[in-house]
Amino acid sequence: MDKACVYLVTGGCGFIGEKIVELLSQQDYIKEVRVFDSVARKEVEKFTTATTRVTVMKGDIRDYNLLLAAMGGVHVVVHTAAVVDYRNILPFGEMRDVNVGGTENVLRACCARDVPYVVYTSSIAAVGPNTSHEPMCRGNEDTRYSGEVELPYGKTKAMAEKLVLEANGKKLSNGGKLVTCIIRANTVFGEKAAFLQELYVLAKARGSVLHYLEPQGSERNYTYVGNVAWMHVLAARNLQLKPALLAGQVYYSYDDTPTRKGFLIRHQLLSCMDPSVRLGSHIPYWKVWLMIQLHRIITIILYPFWKPQPFLNVPLLNTIVTTFSYETDKASRHFGYKPLFTWAESKHRTAQWLKAAAGNLEPPQLQGNKG
Length: 371
Fold this sequence. Notes:
The chain is α/β, with parallel strands linked by helices.
């Protein structure tokens, strides 16, 4: 195997992608980390080290020819580029074109350019909750869970997953085979997590009180972005070293975040940055549902004269209040994954970023990046 690999990270300027690029640049077996992103922030090249060069290329994964050009000489692709849209801001067709059509382009380009290894960044939303809002409590990668995924974003990720798994074992133009695996991220927190900045703005507007929507008994996994990225780094490396074991596998991301109660995690993160933030009370489902309907009616009546800020929708509300958690050590068993950052480190890093970002009182953009 080549001792000086070239990695391509699609969406490498995004929330998770940038952290993957940072950690990849610290690996001495990689000579270049090539970033392919529609945003193409040149400051990501600051991660260049004495042994690993980071280069940024501007391009949209919907453009097959640009992808083909970017993959020249590449050994491994980490495909993170996607539109992350839980609030249905974008038309479904556009999100599908990026998340599904773009993934198809990445896989086609790999086969044409003889790039044998692909790690795909998926989401727990690709699994559920389903339209019946059935819970999954501490399942694992083998847990059977059926029914139609409710969130449109989740539908696109499920469709893309299917493409990635079907591509595993496909012939390359040089006669080799494509080897793929999938990392399913969950609720990811850390530096540049837009939802935390938005929550802080909302809490301060309510007298430093952080209310919550999920029932106290509900569960959902939270993972620090650095640990999600580290799992990608290890999976990509071991996809090369142990392809027979990792080929066609799916891995849930996890770390030592101490609880699955989302409202407690959010409170700990925000109060670590600002001790005045205190945990409020549970907002009943029916009250939020009425607010959503009222917001929708007002928007219809006043459109196009007034376009309000994006608000919750019923599918997202149902996702928030439905237990959807897992418990697994599969990544540890298959490729020796251990969290790179402890909970204390993760919390501290997140708090430091929030302190620096607190001066920006404008709610951040909630729409994900395309790459």
